[in-house]
Amino acid sequence: MSTIIITGADASYFSLVQGTVRSLRSKPEGAKATLGFLDLGCTPTQLAWLQEQVDIIRRPTWQLTFALREQVPAYLKGIWGKPFLPRFFPGYETYLWIDADAWVQDWRGIELFLAGAALRGLAIMPEVDRGSEIQYGGLFGYWNLAFRWYKAAYGEQVAQKLWTHPMLNTGVFALRANTPHWGLWADSLAEALQQLTDVAQASVMTEQLALNRAVYSSLFDQTEMLPGWCNWTCHWGFPRWDPNRMCLVEPYLPHTPLGVVHLTTEKYDQVELLTIEGQPVTQSLRFRES
Q1: Do 260 and 192 belong together in one domain?
Q2: How far apart are alpha carbons 176 and 137 in whole angstroms?
């Protein structure tokens, strides 16, 4: 099955996306994988580096019409362009997206994303995990925030239906080309963008809410839900460090190595972690060449 792995960034995220690309190319499987890149505003020097590392570079164009299209930040062409990846990179059977603030530590995570897409169509990680701090007393506050997001995009009726559903994280996902997800995701995103009345409302969350609505409305049985270690979202809780295997792992037994480390809200570098034995250690959460 032909697969393309895609990421994207503008100039301000270039140092992060370098880690994404290097982490992919440093693995035997990633060295021979087809990599695509969405140029959201990189400099000529940055693009020269990328041309040596990836197979295809595309500059996305707007695929949807909405009132504030010419006023919102240009990088949203890529973030809100995720439902249109097959248009930007045609001809592949499976598309795997990874955000610029995420990197691959263990290829088994990528393998599980691709296996899930082969099985059901979409493979994605719901932000519900035993290692996520939000599960221990913070869910109600987060649900209220999600309610406001959904209400602003789709109205109160949709918000009432979806506000307590686990958020599916679109920072990393794998999706087969021949599925209904793409079209329903695009339709859901288009509906949300029509509600924008102020540039300040433009959010990187909008395309994520759109896919969540599409999945929970009609695509749940065609979606494989993956465990947290496949796409570890650091804003919900730090992993632990295994000094023997020299890798980041789940905080609880059996301390599975993280597949993808996703920095999310904060772009963490050196942080204080615990080892699997509970000893403090200073460790970077960014990709580092071994």
Answers
A1: no
A2: 36
Among residues 140, 139, 129, 211, which one has the least CA distance to residue 175? Answer: 211
Number of neighbouring beta carbons within 10 Å of residue 158: 18
Q: Sheet harboring 260-262: ordered strands across? A: 102-104, 260-262, 232-233
In this structure, are 20 and 139 located in the same domain? yes
Shared domain check, 238 and 223: no
Shared domain for 73 and 120, answered yes or no, is yes
| Span 225-279, pLDDT tens digits | 999 999 999 999 999 999 999 999 999 999 999 999 999 878 888 999 999 999 9
Are residues 246 and 275 part of one domain? yes
Residues 101 and 143 placed together within one structural domain of the fold:
yes
Distance, CA of 198 to CA of 202 (rounded, Å) = 7
Pair (91, 222) in one structural domain: yes
Q: In which band, very low, low, confident or very high, does the pLDDT at 290 lie, cut at 50, 70 and 90?
A: low
Residue 270, domain extent:
230-284
Residues 58, 188, single domain; the answer is: yes
